[in-house]
Amino acid sequence: MKEISFFDQDKVLITGARGMAGSYLNFGIKTDRESLDVTDLKMVLDAGRKHKPKVIIHLAAQTDMDKCENDPDHAYKINAIGTYNMAELAKEIGAKMVYVSTGGVFDGKKDGLYGEDDTPNPQTYYGRSKYLGELIVRGMLNDYIIARTCWLFGGGPGKDKKFISKIISQFEKAEIKAVDDQFGSPTFAKDFIKTLCGLIKDGKTGIFHIVNGGACSRFEEAKEAVKILGAKTKITPVSSDSFPEKTPVIFNQGLISRAVSLRPWQEALREYIEKEWK
């Protein structure tokens, strides 16, 4: 796994460093929920006063949509209050804050890809809690990056527990069913982190959509993964109604950026599967 490194270790504080995206960072003060509970303001401020970072990369989040829907208070505690605490630290020590958000802040009703200037209208507790985090960062700080992404894959066996990992774990089956009415922008976490680091290095501020080029349905994403694996598995398209869930379905989370351009998602997915799974 190739990692990205160009920051001094004592300049950057990273939360949620053990997660998928954090696995591609090889610099900074890397923390996890045990070493830095973002919901504990005193713990956060003590860590900041000790390390005095110039940049805070806030990756820690509750991203399991079903868990957020089943326990909204927990979602808000981590995604909103935790973000407030990190923003409070950034404000106190004068650090740049980098907050990772999601295409889930949109309602999914647009006919086309969402740009940075589109108005959020989250429909799930996950989306609402992440959008509240955005509002907190924007309201408290001037020097910040809000980086929205979508349908992340990466980390390889062990860290990847998302859609691609589930497809790979089933590729020897005769048939896999995947929905063809939910659309998004599959994004390699390594590409996301590399682009995000470039924005930090260049001193950029504001809201940025960071996704690999293009968009597709989960059905198309699954077909591409199976093709890369060289499997003969049949991918059968089905509607979202085939998988009844408590969490509201967001039919379109596709993003596009006016500021950055990444390689096509198919190319990124091929590299990921061939280098980190095969």
Automatic annotation (TrEMBL):
The reply to whether NADP figures as a keyword in the UniProt entry is yes
Q: Name one GO biological process term.
A: dTDP-rhamnose biosynthetic process
What top-level class of enzyme does the UniProt entry assign?
oxidoreductase
UniProt cross-references to CDD domains, sorted A to Z: dTDP_HR_like_SDR_e
**Listed SUPFAM superfamilies:** NAD(P)-binding Rossmann-fold domains
Q: Write the Enzyme Commission number(s) for this entry.
A: 1.1.1.133
Quote the pathway field. Carbohydrate biosynthesis; dTDP-L-rhamnose biosynthesis
Q: What's one GO-annotated cellular component?
A: cytosol
Question: Which key words tag this protein in UniProt?
Answer: NADP, Oxidoreductase
**InterPro entries referenced in this protein's UniProt entry, alphabetically:** dTDP_dehydrorham_reduct, NAD(P)-bd_dom_sf, RmlD-like-bd
| Protein family according to the UniProt entry | Belongs to the dTDP-4-dehydrorhamnose reductase family.
State what this protein does: Catalyzes the reduction of dTDP-6-deoxy-L-lyxo-4-hexulose to yield dTDP-L-rhamnose.
Name of this chain's protein:
dTDP-4-dehydrorhamnose reductase
